[in-house]
Design brief:
Layout lengths: L1 H11 L5 H12 L2 H13 L3 H29 L3 H8 L4 H33 L6 H5 L3 H17 L3 H27 L5 H9 L9 H14 L6 H6 L8 H29 L10 H10 L5 H35 L3 H21 L7 E2 L2 E2 H28 L2 H8 L4
Antiparallel strand pairs: 1-2
Helix pairs in contact: 2-9, 2-13, 2-15, 3-11, 3-13, 4-10, 4-11, 4-13, 4-17, 4-18, 5-6, 6-8, 6-15, 6-16, 6-17, 8-15, 8-16, 9-13, 9-15, 10-13, 11-17, 14-15, 15-16, 16-17
Length: about 400
């Protein structure tokens, strides 16, 4: 088994170093889940109570699950389908289901990535941003296609030449831009109400199962747990890379950036009377209000949305890599063939979400398709994937073998 695993790793490729692995993993986690999804889900779930439940979920569920996903991937040197098949033949169906859910999340995630690219263009041209006008045009569909094309071009360049290089290059710029905006937001009139809303929990809200469900769902979404990505990335890890230390750095960086995003957005929300529970449009309704107040608002706004797009792009790349790896393992295809097969399927599937924010206003059970996909797959589907991953690793499989892979103290 160990010999087969080593051969498979050599054939699949590997990260250049531990720093490269951490950069790629943080890049895959940090993106729209932090800056787009975290603030609006926090707003819909009462702010501080949600944040507390989220931090508990990251510490008690997120970090341990991340370690075991990385460990399982490195032990078997495969994607989630290949790893589950190696653990137990019947578990391959769960692996296939996880890959499908990740693909469906990617399909609408790429639409929102297109929104960030569109807003970069709008700010750059000096046009007054209006999300309602934007969503009544065909821009959402067109920009979705651009996002998928750019993602495909990077993924096809390979593990080191595409994924790792993109993460190392783009992530620092997004982090610095977000910090700068958060610092400025703390000078606004609404900062005290924002910080109270975000960090002073109403403890009675913690009795609501919905708050915990959404907090755990957001933790899983942001850390991309249960999506097959961590298992796949673990399959590219070198033997000398420390799993526990790497996991702590990745989870810590992702959580800090989510908090910074909340600090950046909620002072704007309360200063300009934007509804905290505005939903998926929150980052696209609130942020332009801040940029209008800046002397160099047009330049800053353009840079922010462009960098946000690049952060989203790194997450898209990771989800595509995880899905393609599983398809390649299942059908014994090359990685490249799997990617070329998935790209047109992604264009078809994601178009449904893109059309929900277009003149068609496509809905599913009374909600825009994108919103419905996010609630079905981004929260509950991902929770099912996490449950399936936990059952396969800790019950069906041999957790001690994976713990040994992780190292002492796991």
């Amino acid at each position: 088994m160990e010999q087969d695993s080593t051969k498979n790793k050599l054939a699949r490729g590997a990260w250049s170093s531990q720093a490269g692995f951490i950069a790629a993993s943080v890049g895959s986690a940090v993106g729209l889940g932090n800056v787009w999804r975290f603030p609006y889900v926090a707003g819909e779930n009462g702010g501080g109570a949600f944040v507390l439940a989220y931090l508990i979920s990251v510490a008690l569920l997120g970090v341990p699950l991340m370690m075991f996903e990385f460990g399982a991937g490195r032990r078997h040197a495969a994607g989630v389908f290949g790893v589950f098949s190696a653990i137990a033949p019947r578990a391959k169906y769960a692996g296939a289901g996880i890959a499908v859910i990740a693909f469906l999340i990617l399909s609408y995630y790429a639409v929102v990535a297109g929104w960030t690219l569109g807003h970069a263009g709008i700010m750059g041209l000096g046009i007054e941003p209006d999300f309602e006008v934007f969503s009544d045009s065909w821009a959402s569909l067109a920009l979705f296609g651009v996002s998928v094309a750019l993602m495909g071009a990077i993924v096809l360049r390979g593990v080191q030449g595409g994924i790792e290089v993109a993460s190392r290059t783009l992530l620092p710029f997004l982090t610095l831009a977000l910090l700068a905006i958060a610092i400025y937001s703390l000078t606004l009139d609404g900062r005290e109400r924002a910080l109270e809303f975000l960090f002073e929990p109403r403890f009675e809200a913690l009795r609501e199962p919905r708050v915990w469900a959404n907090a755990m769902g957001q933790a899983m979404f942001s850390l991309i747990i249960g999506s097959g990505v961590l298992v796949t990335f673990g399959g590219y890890m070198r033997a000398q890379t420390g799993v526990r230390d790497s996991t702590a750095l990745i989870a810590g960086a992702d959580t800090v950036i989510a908090m910074v995003a909340g600090v950046a957005i909620f002072p704007i929300v309360f200063t300009f009377a934007v509804a905290p529970a505005a939903g998926p449009e929150l980052a696209f309704d609130s942020m332009p209000l801040l940029f209008e107040q800046l002397a160099a608002g047009r330049l800053v706004g353009t840079a922010f949305y462009l960098l946000l797009f690049f952060a989203a792009l790194t997450s898209m790349i990771a989800m595509m890599e995880g899905t393609a790896s599983s398809l390649a393992d299942a059908l014994r295809w090359t990685r490249t063939r799997a990617i070329w097969t998935l790209l047109p399927l992604l264009l078809v599937t994601g178009s449904l979400s893109a059309l929900s924010y277009s003149p068609v206003h496509l809905t599913l059970f009374g909600e825009p398709v994108l919103d419905r996909m996010d609630s079905l797959f981004g929260t509950f589907g991902l929770m099912l994937s996490v449950l399936a991953t936990s059952i396969v690793i800790f019950w069906v499989g041999k957790p001690q073998a994976i713990a040994d892979e992780i190292g002492p103290g796991a």
